[in-house]
Amino acid sequence: MTDGVTIGQAAAFAGVTVKAIRHYHQHRLIDEPRRDSSGYRRYGSADLLRLVQIRTLAGAGVPLAEIEAILDADPDRFAAALVDAERRLTDRIDDLIARRETLRRLAIGDRALLPDRALALLDRAADLGLTPADVTMAREGMVLIKALVPEGFDDYLSRIERALDDPRYMSLIKRMWCAAEWEPDDPRIDELATAIADHFLAHPALLPIPAGLQDRTDSAIRYSLLTHHGHEQKPGWTRLTALIEARLRSAGIDIADQTPLHEL
């Protein structure tokens, strides 16, 4: 009787594929057995045991590059290696759970792109009377600010929290959102620009300026990306923003390096 089994039989017995066994050989996880007189490699019981061990560790998430050292280690090192592999596997599981949660949140929109603190502010804005379209635009603005000025995002949220507690400011903001539908030459735009600029000058802490934007060498580019968001089909907004910036600049505030005023 010929000793051992063929590679196909070994694969079936060990619960792997022939391709996997050859892959294990390439990674030197298991020695290639000698060929019999017919030219077939024959796998013995020790080989089958090794294949099962490799399959089990690989299935548990242990990288192939680490399996040889684990299998060839003494009992203490073997146990320590398994503990480390378990820790890394747990980290991967936590990461996958977080990704799954992100996908679930994305199913209801881009709210997954913002932290809970920002979402709470958007909910407050909706409760204060901003329309769903206004809140959507504000949310998109927050996403952009978080991406372009991440180091100043928490400071920006703090400013928005103070702003939402200012009834006069919220009244102006609601009118600002309405101005998106006004014609650029509407006289109400000049009046509103003056009122908003005066309020910012009287309450500079309300200026939505995230910390760190002015320190960036490409702050002008980032500012341009932020300030033009949503303006494509809203020429009234474009003029209103320009007038507010001009009034603030004449008062000594260089708004060109700061955050767009319509992002809530």
Automatic annotation (TrEMBL):
Pfam families: MerR_1. GO terms for molecular function: DNA binding; DNA-binding transcription factor activity. CDD domains: HTH_MerR-like (cd00592). Residues 6-73 form the HTH merR-type domain. Keywords: DNA-binding. PROSITE patterns: HTH_MERR_2. It comes from the Bacteria. The keyword Transcription does not apply. InterPro entries: DNA-bd_dom_put_sf, MerR-type_HTH_dom, MerR_fam. Gene3D superfamilies: 1.10.1660.10. This is MerR family transcriptional regulator. It comes from Nonomuraea glycinis. The lineage of its organism: Bacteria, Bacillati, Actinomycetota, Actinomycetes, Streptosporangiales.
